[in-house]
Amino acid sequence: DAVASTGRAFLAATGALAVAGLAAGAAGRWLGERFSAAASRAAVVLPRARRPLPPVPASVRVGTPGVTPFITPDPDFYRIDTALQVPQVRVDDWRLRIGGMVDAPMELSFDQLLARELVEADITLTCVSNEVGGGLLGTARWLGVRLDDLLRDAGVHRHADQVVGRSVDGYTCGFPVAALDGRDALVAVGMNGEPLPLEHGFPARLVVPGLYGYVSATKWLREIELTRFDRFDQYWVPRGWAAEAPIKTSSRIDTPRGLARIAPGPTAVAGVAWAQTRGIATVEVRVDDGPWRPARLGAALNDVTWRQWTFTWDATPGRHTLAVRASDGTVAIQTA
Ligand SMILES: Nc1nc2c(c(=O)[nH]1)N[C@H]1C(S)=C(S)[C@@H](COP(=O)(O)O)O[C@H]1N2
Ligand SMILES: [Mo]
């Protein structure tokens, strides 16, 4: 295309061989790193959690064809980050530093991290950029070290109010120290029984239930720094995003899909709803301008994962608009 041929002409004029040689060198180096990061991941053997969770009970599932699976398989898990190339980290070169406003700064190798008590937690991660009906959220069984445990050992100063997670590629998240209120915030090393996939932050990332990913879920984590909100702005704050971002109550219709053609008669409508840390209380469905009517909910696994819901609609011929809304039982119903 036009852009490529302009580029080539420019290269020819400035010494194509030298430039091509540099490019090949960089690509080779990158491929070499990529190979060794994948090999490093393949060699990881994750210990088991001290108290492994039981399998997710069948009662969380509503059984409607087309509803999102309760646990998102790793290959289907959404990916959002600023990395043009996935950072390639080998565990041998990796250290986790914990510093800033703490009494006892720490530095842990991957083996030292794994030697600590490991816990499992089922948590739904959510991106703030998820649009109505969008797929930028997923649920996994995470394995990791409790962040409150690590920070207890480090000794957080009384005036520190922000936990900052820094990645190997310079990304930062930041969230309130007060969010560590007993919830299962983790330095995660495992996702659905496997080491973290490279795209999801191998070898370690943060996962904090109830907070949007951009403020909490640093992938390719290399440093946890205790600081103050009035001293440090995380990556997205100077770009206009809120410094604090608890997840809002929301819901989604998975089936039928928008603009689907269906037969008149009883039709299963189903989806998921989420309100991490508060839990979903009700889900209601509306057809056209009709009343809001309650959906049947799958069992709640805990208050930090989504819930499936299902609703039987007696579809009539013609074009219809379906809407869903959820409430978390503590505040107003999800906004339109
Ligand atoms: N290093 C790094 N970590 C990051 C990001 C990033 O850009 N760089 N994006 C965050 C955002 S906005 C979200 S929603 C989650 C997404 O995690 P996932 O890609 O594993 O789903 O990662 C968070 N962690
Ligand atoms: Mo995000």
Structural notes for this entry:
The strands form four sheets. The protein has a five-stranded mixed beta sheet with strand order 2-1-10-5-6. Strands 3, 4, 7, 8 and 9 form a five-stranded antiparallel beta sheet that branches. Strand 1 and strand 2 (106-109) form a beta hairpin. 18% of the residues lie in helices and 29% in strands. The chain is built from five helices and 17 strands. It has helices at 2-14, 16-43, 110-115, 147-154, 213-216, and strands at residues 95-100, 106-109, 119-126, 137-146, 162-167, 172-176, 186-191, 194-195, 205-207, 221-227, 250-255, 265-274, 282-287, 293-294, 296-297, 307-315, 322-327. By secondary structure, the chain is α+β, with helices and mostly antiparallel strands. The ligand Nc1nc2c(c(=O)[nH]1)N[C@H]1C(S)=C(S)[C@@H](COP(=O)(O)O)O[C@H]1N2 binds next to helix 5.
How large is the radius of gyration? Answer: 23 Å
Q: What spatial form do the alpha-carbon principal axes imply?
A: globular
Which strand order spans the largest sheet, edge to edge or round the barrel? 2-1-10-5-6
What is the structural class?
A: alpha+beta
Distance between the termini: 44 Å
Number of helices: 5
H-E string: HHEEHEEHEEEEEHEEEEEEEE
- Average pLDDT, rounded to a whole number, is 92
What ions, cofactors and ligands are bound?
A: the ligand Nc1nc2c(c(=O)[nH]1)N[C@H]1C(S)=C(S)[C@@H](COP(=O)(O)O)O[C@H]1N2, molybdenum atom
Total beta-strand segments: 17
> What about the largest sheet?
5 strands, mixed
